């Protein structure tokens, strides 16, 4: 047999003995309190007896062992493995990886280290919440109001907001129409159908404003779009002497205050005005809970303002002529929440 073949045969024998030695080391390990120095000497003696017929000195045998297992290499000078993990956990992993029978054997000796090995494990990630997009912010509200609607109009269509339009009044459609339209869209987005009639009523003859808007009111009432829950005439107030419009801070944003006007029967027959007044007071009470200060008052006046035509008819003033459009539109968004809460009691 040539030297090369002999060396190959010799190397194979050594590797086989090394594997047997590792097996003996692994099966002889007490994982809870290992003493690597004594264990190494004992297992090396076992290996020496097995290899008595082969001329292998101690140094060569140690090299084979060190090259075969990281566990017999001593402590890592770099400390890349925690000592308890290296001594108690990694050794089991290496054994079960090389001796498959051990991987299926139930270990009845559950050591303290194994019990603690799960303590620092991260908990499983929380399940992702499914994002659901809907046309309405509340499907429940949409279902509640599916057969109902509200209607809006502007008797004084030319009313506007000076900071934005540079005038308190314009010919035709002032910014008050933007507020009414915004309120209508907010109600629809929250689940209640809303219709805004943008007919101009105060131009060219301002004195005929309420006469013209009464025609619009009668038209609205004649339309069959479901059950009408409320009818609103949208205005803005005019408070002389103010350089800046009044505001109320809600959720760190500035909103224009809302004034509710209720017409009485002082000048004209209006048998249901108290029903309107009760409706207005409920809006104020709910507003004080949801958005304190937004609805600043409910005020009664001697005129009827076409409110005699419907028993849930009110005049709403969003801010004054010195408020900004943004402040009044924000007030409309908040008022939509209040109105929905009150009208739920009506259906």
Q: Count the DSSP helices.
A: 12
CATH architecture of the largest domain: 3-Layer(aba) Sandwich
Strands, count: 8
What count of structural domains? 2
Mean pLDDT: 78
Q: Quote the distance from N terminus to C terminus.
A: 105 Å
Described by strand count, sense and barrel closure, the largest sheet is: 6 strands, mixed
Order of helices and strands: HHHHHHHEHHEHEEEEHEEH
In helices, the fraction of residues equals 40-55%
Structural class: alpha/beta
- Unreliable runs, pLDDT <50, ≥5 residues? 29-36, 75-81, 103-137
Oligomer: single chain
CATH topology of the largest domain: Aminopeptidase
Question: Any overview of this molecule?
Answer:
The chain is of the alpha/beta class and 347 residues long. It has two domains: 3-116, no CATH class; 140-343, Zn-dependent exopeptidases (Aminopeptidase, 3-Layer(aba) Sandwich). Helix content is 44%, strand content 14%. It contains twelve helices and eight strands. It has helices spanning 3-28, 36-50, 58-68, 83-98, 100-103, 112-116, 139-144, 162-165, 176-190, 209-222, 273-290, 325-343; strands at 148-153, 193-197, 227-237, 248-250, 253-255, 258-263, 295-301, 313-320. The strands form two sheets. It has a six-stranded mixed beta sheet, with helices on both faces. Strand 4 (248-250) and strand 5 (253-255) form a beta hairpin. Helix 1 crosses helix 3. The chain is elongated, with a radius of gyration of 43 Å. Mean pLDDT is 78; it is low at 29-36, 75-81 and 103-137.
